[in-house]
Amino acid sequence: MGSGAESRNPLASAEDRARNARARFAQRSRAEVLELVDEELVAEHAANPFGRHSDRLGHVLAHLRRGPLAGKVVILCDQPFARYRLARLTGVREERPVPVGSEVYRTVEEAEHAVFRLRLKLLREDAG
Amino acid sequence: MSRPLVLAYPDRFSAAPGETVSFHVSCEGEQRFEAALVRLLCGCADPSGPGFKEVVVDSDLAGAYPGRVQPIETGSYVRIDDPDGRLAARGSLSLRALVWPTLPGSGEQVIMGRWRADLSAGYALMLDEAGRLAFHVGDGQGNAAQAVTERPLVQRVWYEIEGECDADSGFMSVRCDPQVTSFNSQVGPLGAPAGERAERAAAVEIAAPANTRFLLAACETAEDGRVVPARHFNGKLEAPAVHAAGAAVAAWDFSVGIGPEGIPSDHVEDVSGNGLHGTCVNLPARGMTGASWSGWTDSFVHAPSEYGAIHFHEDDLEDARWEPDLAFTVPRGMRSGLYAVRLRAGKAEEYVPFVVRPPQGTATAKALVLLPTATYLAYANDHQGTDAGAAEYLLGHAIMLCESDVVLAERRELGLSMYDSHADGSGVCYSSRLRPILTMRPKYLSPIASGLWGFNADLNLIDWLDADGQQFDVATDEDLDREGVELLEPYHVIITGTHPEYTSPGMLDALEGFVAGGGGLMYLGGNGFYWVTTFHPEKPHIIEVRRGEAGIRAWEGQPGEGWHASTGRPGGLWRYRGRAPQKLAAVGFAAEGFDCSSYFRLLPDARDERAAWVFEGIEGDIIGDFGLAGGGAAGHELDRYELDLGTPPQTLLLAASEAHTDGMLRVVEEIPVSTPGVGGTKDPDVRADMTLFTHPGGGAVFSTGSITWCSSLSWNGYDNDVARLTRNVLERFLDKRSLPG
């Protein structure tokens, strides 16, 4: 498998005008995605955080999973199969992820759903 | 005091009775560490499975040892051998080279010179912190001067550069002239930057401590009482030369040595006639396109003069070069298997796996597990969880990081995997086993699929074989590459790991020869036999992989840089060498997805009398709708039967996986035209195929085509259909006389 590097070169995007086009896409996409979110959708994810989702949930997740490395929400496993927390990547090599909140989750499924809810909250905040 | 941390590596991955493995340990935050020898079984604490299992083995090695911190020096460069001090210039001199910088502006980077950075002593041509070209001279007594251009160099553009000082006029200068063609740089002539020259008066004598070395792509500095290489240059360097009084003191041609078998050497030739030859340290990439690359050749073998560049990286690492702390000589009669030295210091724990082989030239069982160590090396210390922005999108779930991933993120000196990019964005084409490899450990849970992957997934196979009472020997990819089919011939059955993705030509030849000679191959994995892989002929601890323009690839090499410097042969996918995995295993890479796994459903061939024995004791049509990796035996990466890619025509297609999600995606080499509908719910070729074929010579190949197969073996206390089916095949293959005709 291979998941691809974030960027060919950290300096390459310094004057990259394409970021304006991508920002416009994200703005439009954010609005479309928020219209798809309701309690039923959140409940579907809570019931089954991994795999086999409806097309609607798949669309929302596809949007939430994109985004730059810096600030990406991840799951920190303190104790396998017993203790998980959320954190954010800084996007800088050699830096530890920064913990988000103090909540502890007993299963990776609970943590996965917490990531989903946190991202929906951030999406709403971004949309103003 | 820092948090305790123990890291270690062995000097070899396998040893036979009478041979010795040494273990190189760095111990932080504790004065002592405890060592024990263990046989590894299950490496995962998942409560749905058997839990973590190891067996402590009595050995002389057990006991307490003094701990010490051992540093790692990363960063590649060339060390020049100058016993007569010809490069210890004091007056006029000129330094010239061609450079293709990749990280200008990320700190001071020395291109060439005899320079002690801590003393500002000697001379050096470098990029300053802002990425501007600078020529520095100094006497180490506080007198230093530099000529510096105004603008930074532009990344991935070829420049001719020169730094010069003239003792007579008292002036020094520096200049950079872009050498952009339509092919050789990131931009073409229409986007090329301008050249520049800077000059200044400088009445400074050049002097440096007598033991200061002349280096290419780095300089020396003192740190913690030691003189170490520092300020590594990131980028390509070509034809560096030193002139004094109008004559060449040294002129290095990196293309000298390129031949039909590549350039598997650290030697750097001085062509000035003065014999100031050099040695590469930490394995920079050779056989790289130079400023004169025409765009019309893909190989240094065919046009060596166009490949006169070496690509240096600040994070290259060939060998941690730690001192040994303990050693283990395999005693006569020790059972072949997968072992580890377990190290504990306070709360810190480390496992250093290694294989015990049977006595040389013998077998102590009829079955051999071929541990895919080339694949472990390709993934060694991968940073996909912390460095790869697209990882989550591919995986279909949030990234889960364990402590080892955080250690790897912080400690870049542990080196990179072939899934990483260097700090400058270029791909990593070498991997070494002479360093701690945190991803090749029991208990390691990978961000990939939030858990079982590679070594730790393969322990599920080892554990099941042990729990089932099967006798087996173990050998590594490196052993097979070195010894060929002779290693396999004493066995009736070869069993692969879950993901033997990286395969050398010698390994493929051996496996093919083994089956042709009447042996049974059980390929219990997915995405196997995929990348052309080289074990370095001079450095067996190194593998080389070049990722080209096709395949699921974490990075893509530069145009013209797809051939292996260590062999002089093209890299890339075996498929594009005309040797797709299907020719050996009947199946080859078809799809990947990591959100959840699925199951197999039997197909009509399962009822064929030639294969009915495979399913003895199994009821129903569904196999493997359970397991520790994504909940199914068909998952992560899937391989498909494909006659067009070389599946032997006599192959039976026993079962195929189904009900995959759209997170399971067809591989890119099978999508020549972008189309929708390449996910598991829409594409009929997104599936794992279970196959069986026999060869007229008596051999047979059984394949499951799925990485997660082996992680279902232990389900329900090892009492399940995946285990039953695997046992049916193994026991049939073990009895050569009853191999299906």
Largest β-sheet summary of chain B? 16 strands, antiparallel
Regarding quaternary structure, what we see is: heterodimer
Number of helical stretches of at least 4 residues of chain B: 10
Rg of chain A computed from alpha carbons, rounded to a whole number of angstroms: 16 Å
Radius of gyration of chain B: 28 Å
Q: Widest sheet of chain A: strand order?
A: 1-2-3
Q: What is the strand tally of chain A?
A: 3
Helix content of chain A: 40-55%
Classification by helices and strands of chain B: mainly beta
As for the number of domains of chain B, it is: 2
Query: How does CATH name the architecture of the largest domain in chain B?
Result: 3-Layer(aba) Sandwich
Explain briefly what this protein structure is.
The complex is a heterodimer of chains A (128) and B (741). Chain A is of the alpha+beta class and 128 residues long.
Describe the structure.
The complex is a heterodimer of chains A (128) and B (741). Chain A is α+β, with helices and mostly antiparallel strands. Chain A contains four helices and three strands; from the N terminus they run H-H-H-E-E-E-H. Chain A has helices at 18-36, 39-47, 55-65, 108-127, and strands at residues 73-79, 83-88, 98-105. In chain A, strands 1-2-3 form a three-stranded antiparallel beta sheet, covered by helices on one side. In chain A, a hairpin with a 3-residue loop joins strand 1 and strand 2. In chain A, helix 1 (18-36) packs antiparallel against helix 3 (55-65) and helix 1 (18-36) crosses helix 4. The longest helix of chain A is centred in the C-terminal third of the chain and has 20 residues, at 108-127. Chain A is flat, with a radius of gyration of 16 Å. Chain A starts with 17 loop residues before the first helix and ends with a helix. Chain B has ten helices and 46 strands. In chain B, the strands form eight sheets. Chain B has a 16-stranded antiparallel beta sheet that branches. In chain B, strands 28, 31, 32, 34, 40, 41, 42, 43, 44, 45 and 46 form an eleven-stranded mixed beta sheet that branches. In chain B, helix 6 crosses helix 8. Chains A and B meet through helix 3, strand 1 and helix 4 of A and helix 2, helix 3, strand 29, helix 4 and strand 40 of B. Strand 1 (73-79) of chain A pairs parallel with strand 29 (400-401) of chain B.
